[in-house]
Design goal:
The chain is α/β, with parallel strands linked by helices. Helices cover 44% and strands 19% of the residues. It has ten helices and ten strands. The strands form two sheets. The protein has a five-stranded mixed sheet with strand order 3-2-1-4-5, with helices on both faces. It has a five-stranded mixed sheet with strand order 8-7-6-9-10, with helices on both faces. A hairpin with a 4-residue loop joins strand 6 and strand 7. The longest helix has 26 residues. It is globular and about 65 Å long. Bound molecules: 5'-O-[(R)-(carboxyoxy)(hydroxy)phosphoryl]adenosine. The site of 5'-O-[(R)-(carboxyoxy)(hydroxy)phosphoryl]adenosine has 20 residues, from helix 5 and helix 6.
């Protein structure tokens, strides 16, 4: 079954053709250069660029896959969560395609797509497993009971881990996207130079809170600047990265133990973080868990991961109709 999928939830316009877990094409047109001058994604600009680029990106996905529109069996699209104007561009384009091709339309939850990125890399991976999804807008530990059956074990009560990285990186003067550059600058640094607090979430045992950590880093930078003191930026990046990884890894391992999982899966844009990948893998090996994370090319936003999840949504009978609307927020458990 060949699925043409579209992803436009943030600053990447992407289209892919997938066949189950096989990727026939995965075209990504990134807007990073344009948003960099503002230090972050400008939603209005993102929507306009999606609008301009989407037809060309979809056509390229079809031609790179070596297929025609007639060969496509279904059209899938990220419908939620994300930037609303950006999502609407993809959703409306997908609805038009579905209508004109007379093919089923499949709405995909963006975080389910990030989890499904693992199916592209690990052909043998099957639920049940525990998954930590860490991205720019979300940090969630969820139980993946089946391909379309999810429950939330813990989540951030304020900022996502990626947002914490991005905002701190910006305050340190690193270019957008901050998380990626913070990871690079942190390489080989002293990770214990700054006394950063371990935040308490105040929620459930597996909930997260990153806003206090972000504020601590911002205050530290402002204080040092006011006093005219130099800041060891690589060490601050390294200390923050270590602290965030400590929190993510310890909560994930505890949640997997308490809920009786044997497999731990890491997903989302922040799963590209070198320290997180390495340390989570080592910890899983030490504690007897099987560990899975996507190849780097599938960690960030891309349409192939949406196609991978769309296949399982289709098999579960989750077909959308032309009244489909985008939504800026949506729980991973709920796609109604
Ligand atoms: O999943 P994603 O591409 O978009 C969302 O769905 O949010 O994630 C983007 C996030 C950004 O916060 C970016 O800074 C972060 O992932 N990120 C990283 C790394 N690569 C991307 N954070 C830390 N280390 C990285 N290597």
């Amino acid at each position: 079954m060949k699925i043409l999928s579209i992803e436009s939830s943030c600053d990447e316009t992407s289209a892919a053709v997938t066949c189950g877990r096989e990727v026939l094409s995965n075209i990504i047109s990134t807007q990073i250069d344009e948003h960099r001058i503002y230090g972050g994604v400008v939603p209005e600009i993102a929507s306009r660029r999606h609008c301009e680029n989407i037809a060309a990106v979809v056509n390229e996905a079809i031609s790179t896959a070596g297929v025609t529109y007639d060969d496509i069996d279904a059209v899938a699209v990220t419908a939620y969560p994300g930037l609303i104007g950006a999502l609407l561009t993809g959703v409306n384009f997908a609805k038009g395609l579905s209508l004109s091709l007379s093919k089923p339309l499949i709405a995909v939850h963006h975080l389910r797509g990030h989890i499904a990125a693992n199916y592209l890399t690990h052909k043998e991976l099957k639920p049940p497993f525990l998954c930590l999804v860490v991205s720019g807008g979300n940090t969630v530990i969820c139980s993946v009971k089946d391909y379309t059956d999810f429950s939330v074990i813990g989540q951030t009560l304020d900022d996502a881990a990626g947002e914490c990285f991005d905002k701190c990186a910006r305050a340190m003067g690193l270019p957008y996207p901050g998380g990626v550059n913070l990871d690079k600058v942190a390489a080989g640094s002293d990770e214990s130079l700054f006394p950063l607090p371990t935040p308490k979430s105040g929620g459930g045992e597996y909930d997260f809170s990153f806003s206090g950590l972000k504020t601590a880093v911002l205050n530290l930078i402002h204080n040092k600047k006011q006093k005219g003191e130099d800041i060891d930026i690589p060490a601050l990046c390294g200390t923050l990265r270590k602290k965030v990884c400590d929190i993510l890894i310890s909560k994930t391992i505890s949640a997997a133990k308490e809920n009786g999982f044997k497999k731990i899966v890491l997903a989302g844009g922040v799963s590209a973080n070198s320290e997180l990948r390495e340390r989570m893998k080592n910890e899983c090996e030490k504690q007897g868990f099987s560990f899975f994370t996507p190849e780097l090319k599938y960690c960030g936003d891309n349409a192939a991961m949406i196609g991978a999840q769309a296949y399982y949504e289709f098999m579960a009978g989750n077909i959308a109709d032309l009244s489909l609307n985008a939504s800026a927020t949506k729980d991973i458990t709920n796609t109604d």
